[in-house]
Amino acid sequence: MGTRIWAEKWLIGLTLAGCVGLIATSGHAALAAAFWIVLVLALLRQPAMPAPPAAVEPLPSTGEAELATLEAGFDALDMPVLVIGPDERVLFQNQAAEKAFGVIPANSDLSGRVRSPGILDMVRETIATGRINQIEHSERLPSEAVYIVRVAPAALAAGGPKRVSAPESIDTVYVVSYRDISQARRIDRMRSDFVANASHELRTPLASLRGFIETLQGPARNDVKAHERFLGIMLEQANRMSRLVDDLLSLSRLELKSHIAPEQEVALAPLLGHVCDTLGPLAQDVGITISLAVPSFPIVVQGDRDELIEVFENLVENACKYGQEGKTVEVILSGGGGDPVEVSVRDHGPGIPAEHVPRITERFYRVNVEASRSKKGTGLGLAIVKHILTRHRARLIVRSVLGEGTVFTVRF
User: What was the pLDDT predicted at 162?
Assistant: First the structure.
């Protein structure tokens, strides 16, 4: 537009100059002036050439854009999400839902994929009323899992998308989300089991103490032999409670610092020698010989020396107590030089049934309750071992064969 105005100004200027020249050289000034004025007006009346219109790409409908944004956002979530249409058909599932429940083809009926009547009823109620709902749902297969399932409507813009798999435009979709609370439920169950087991373990010696005290105050008041026998049993029960309380306090301390890895350097060969020497009298009492095999070169790991002593004392003591039929306990240090460092404690006793092996590090879990109590066990020893090794970023590997014995391996 600016170029056109500039050209018109020059044209007018040239026209005026031509008129002046004609007047000066010709007697027909009026005729020349009229001719040039008509020419200028004709030029000014010509319309300017319009600029070619810019290419404009068609925009998707607002509903399609919103649904595409929802799908992209849901794919970034780590919780399973299903997007349901008003006709109860699955329009979309995110990647987390594919991993949890398998691939659901688009436009599948929800009731054909979700077998829970509670979830189906909740979705139908939300579709009918538009209100947000949620329930707690448990899955048994392929593994036990607990979810908080929530359904909420999501309104799309007017004139929403005409999806390939849907027969008509959709104004509102319904988002079904699965929030996994399995770990929280397991922790709650472990906490309640722990309180119940701890109460039970303390109740038994307390009941024994109270019964013996009442007997000594009553019928056995003047019975010297009963005094000696009952006082011995009372001392044993008091020691049992003391061991239990000490183990509980030790577990609590370990849990408080479980996220802090130790930074000391500990030589394992002399540490294992100290453990075997300390447990020598116990092994001799139960008829066990402890053999120690260590390499000729030093093996050093990062750890807390006192805690590692507690780990190996616990493992060797258990091997002596529960594997005494085999008469020998072998402690073997191996690895180093680029290979994982391992300490194996092997007994040749009766072994542990396979169904018990995964649970033996749980608090108060015992393969044989009577045998454990008769050997003054609290049921917390291997739980303490597991917590210490977790802090040391080490693993406890258990291999057992019935009739052949058990091997506990600590791998750093």
Answer: 40
